Amino acid sequence: MHTLQLILVALALPSLIFAHTIPRDAGHDHDETIRRALPSAWYQRDDHPAHALFKRQQASSTFTYPQVGTPAWSAGFPQSTPDSSQLPTAWVNALNAAVAAGKIPNIPPTTLVNGSPTYPQGTNGGDPSVCSGTYGCRIPGDIWDAPTGVLATGFDDGPIGQFSPGLYTFLSQNNIPATHFMIGVNILNNAAAFQQAFSAGQDIAVHTYTHPYMTTLSNLDVLAQIGWTMELIHNSTGGKLPAFWRPPYGDSDVRTRAIAVEVFGLTTIIWNHDTNDWNFGNAGVSAQSIQSAMTGWLTGPKTPGLIILEHELNQGAVNAFEAAYPLMISNGWNLVSAAQILNGHSWMNGTDNGGVLPVAATPTTSSTSTSSTAAPSSSSATRSGANGAASSSASHKSGASTTKLPGWTVYSGLFTVLLGLFSAGAVLF
Q1: Residue 84 in domain
Q2: What is the model's pTM?
Q3: Total structural domains in the chain?
Q4: Are 292 and 268 spatial neighbours (Cβ–Cβ below 8 Å)?
Q5: Which residues are paired to 308 by β-bridges?
Q6: Is residue 327 within 8 Å of residue 298, measured between CB atoms?
Q7: Which of 29, 85, 331, 426 is a good FRET partner for 402, with 20 to 30 A between their CA atoms?
Q8: Is residue 276 part of a domain?
Q9: pLDDT tens digit sequence for 190-203
Q10: Where is this region: Disordered (predicted)?
């Protein structure tokens, strides 16, 4: 059976994967040669077509990734905006299969008008059928709020060689867990900082390859922005697949979000408060203005919990977080990495502090996350309902709502495709 046929069959599978516990490793397993064996118990029958995607892994239990930071490592990735005409066939086939199955809405891209994504006449970005975050609409299933009493820590736009290492050191010294929504080219250009974050046990999530407004892109360009970032993280962590992404500027609609979900299995995390720290030193944004906003949020109600948009792309932003940290603790906030507020797991196929899980493995409900205080006791992160208003700035849109969905369940067909896309190593990429 041809690869495209296999992917079409896999995407149609309705069953769910559940599996066994994998012990937490003592440290990160990101040497050049990584042990990646399939599980002894796979919850599909042995003659299921999905198994054909894993024949290559079964034939060889080890795979060698180029060392992070070497020319061989960087040579495998675009040096700037990805060329959507030069994509791995497996990604394009998976996208085409999702389109053919009616899973990718046919919504026209936006164009930037005075810096704001604008739809063609006749398309309303605020309508639920489009549901653009820029227009204040919240897509059902996306995460906007943390659980009650939880402050979801996370930082956008890293790694930056000049600023990120100091932040990572502060986080480590204070045992603060955080999710770093990383840009692909920044990883490529700051390999040492990336390795520092990963080695310290920080969570890594996708923030696209070059930070565009996602709704302005074609389907293939969306595929390229997410896919190359995910592949770069995968190859730089010994084969781990990030489970979350954040669209730059919060700009996503049901089309772009569907590509992230249906092709790559990613969950979207937005935010419900914005420090504007990305614009530090301009437009009245200062240490004082950020501290004032932080004080209001941190001393205010604990329902919903906080997902504050923060950055690691300038020293002012880093300093502002460090200055606010004592106030977070004194006001009793439970600091939890943003990628772990849903179910305590930030990777699709790996333990939070170590190796790669077998294909069918599912972590148990016991969280292995670390925080300054206890991790949430249940999967109580709230996802968006439908059409909530957004809290926004000129460049970043956000909002909040509530809809709980079960954590860490993925369709077997989708997960099969993901492992086919990212686990074949040199054969596909």
Answers
A1: no
A2: 0.75
A3: 1
A4: no
A5: 273
A6: yes
A7: 331
A8: yes
A9: 999 999 999 999 99
A10: 358-401
